[in-house]
């Protein structure tokens, strides 16, 4: 899958692929829809969509805007909820330890990444590495524990539809999808809503991933929902979000859990099951409650079965977070991650106040749509996986790129490029209605340096990123800075790439492209999309390309292979040549 | 595959239930299987709904250390037993990879011929 828009929990930023957007049909209009939705300029957005005579463009503009609303909801939920804050904290725990890590590694032998693999003696024996330092071991244990927690949360539960996820991340998706569709309906109307819902080639998978909650709650009697066609539900949604929010108020920081035969206060999936069981006695009554009454009911239910209401769980978690920050301050932890975490905590406090003073803004679909979503402003990163020659445009600050040293860039413009840049934001005013993190400068450091390092330690090169080199570049930097050798575990040398040219045709709305090797026109359904990591794992393919070209063209292709981390679009013949060239497994080690 | 004449290192990747079953098997002469771990951290960015999606299968892996000879047959047999006992509608399979290079050696399912599998594993060690 090639993502056009993503929310990154490691940095709390919204990423969009500017080059994929630029390759789209009516790229100007689709790009405008994206930016209007990001900036909360709803009147402009409505105007833009209304003006479109082409139904594809009209639908796609609405879809892109709704995708932004979807990601903005993730931004809120990752900051506000206990589950979300736990996920963010897993990254920050590594950020605050990075300086120590870099210091220790200078004296250490080769280290295996992902770091938790270093705890496996068989794996270490296989790779001729060992982890000796107790602080390194502690960090490795933390990575192992974090992964285990997420796996427990994301393990599918059996159902007659097959295994379905019902944990925190799955609940996040349900909330975000539900609210995005609600907003589409309110802003654009029913006709466009129908088309946005159909604007996806994997409708069945959408149903499983985003709508399982309707089925589960309907069958429990807690939600009035009707399946009006194969995969379209008509839902009375007033009591939906309060219940899901209660599930997300898990208890972390090693606090004592409440566990009985039918209840568990821990993971969101367990909490949800506990609440469904408890509320099931008077299910039909719950299903007819208003949002506010449902919120009161779930708070009471949580008090009864877990010993704390939802708000009490959130307060307890926030309090623990405050203590954690105080501990970092006393330990004189590295300034940058501490500042960022303090800002996260501050923003979380604002969201908690809103939840207490006006819960409808967060839990009521209409109020969220009309009053809240346009106030949310995560920092925005423009990703250009193919690299853009030169420097980012005015209004953007470079996050990653390359500048060849001692070069006259006027004479050799190709010697400098950028891959990602953050959109500049003005300082947050005191009575600013925007809900965002405070100082952009702090978060630029998080995105450009801390997060890639943490991702390397957590997942090697395997964590998917819109910009491929951000992680492998940081590996080179750490090795140069510390002298240590970071050995990437063979299983984690590259992300799992599943490239399907039909995805590109769908995302861009195009029916043809020019082969990036032969320059011939390729028409749908033909052509191949070659993953950037896969291309680099076949050095013989690259050598063959370079061997075919001469002089300036050869030089440009060489630079392009360094710079271009986007999928390559090629004709079927080049695809066959690619398939025939052998994989070199030691690349990215 | 690594072979310093003592040990062959493999990575086996498959569904959680199967890998855990194999990891739980008793250490025998010439064969050990490490505790299972998730292949992915599952902590990566959250994609938008826009665009084709895929249901991600949760996979686990284990490191297998075995010696040339009968240990390989015992391991393959244990793997097939674990696969056969999985009651999933679509019968699962396990990818057996060269531990050091990650090159795929073979895919094992409940119908795999054990002798052929052993040969494939041992031949790749000699490359």
Provide a descriptive summary of the structure in words.
The complex is a heterodimer of chains A (589) and B (127). Chain A has 589 residues and is an alpha+beta fold. Chain A is built from 27 helices and 13 strands. In chain A, 55% of the residues lie in helices and 11% in strands. In chain A, α4 crosses α9 and α18 (335-357) crosses α21. The model of chain A has no long low-confidence stretch (mean pLDDT 92). Chain B is 28% helix and 26% strand. At the A-B interface, β1, α4, α5, α7 and α8 of A face β1, β3, β4 and β5 of B. β1 of chain A pairs antiparallel with β4 of chain B, so a sheet runs across the interface.
The dominant shape of chain A is globular
Sheet with most strands of chain B: 6 strands, antiparallel
Alpha-beta classification of chain A: alpha+beta
Largest interface: A-B, 75 and 39 residues
The quaternary organization reads as heterodimer
Mean pLDDT of chain B: 84
* Fraction of residues in helix of chain B: 25-40%
Outline the secondary-structure elements.
The complex is a heterodimer of chains A (589) and B (127).
Chain A lengths: L4 E4 L4 E5 H5 L4 H13 L2 H10 L3 H26 L1 H14 L2 H8 L5 E3 L7 H7 L6 H21 L13 H21 L1 H9 L4 H8 L1 H8 L4 E4 L5 E4 L3 H8 L20 H12 L3 H5 L3 H16 L3 H21 L4 H23 L2 H4 L1 H8 L6 E11 L6 E8 L12 E8 L16 H20 L9 H14 L3 E3 L12 H8 L3 E3 L6 E3 L4 E3 L1 H5 L2 H10 L2 H13 L4 E3 L1 H9 L9
Chain B lengths: L7 E8 H8 L7 E3 L3 E2 L7 E2 L11 E8 L3 H16 L8 E5 L5 E5 L5 H12 L2
Antiparallel strand pairs in B: 1-5, 1-6, 2-5, 3-5, 6-7
Helix pairs in contact in B: 1-2, 2-3
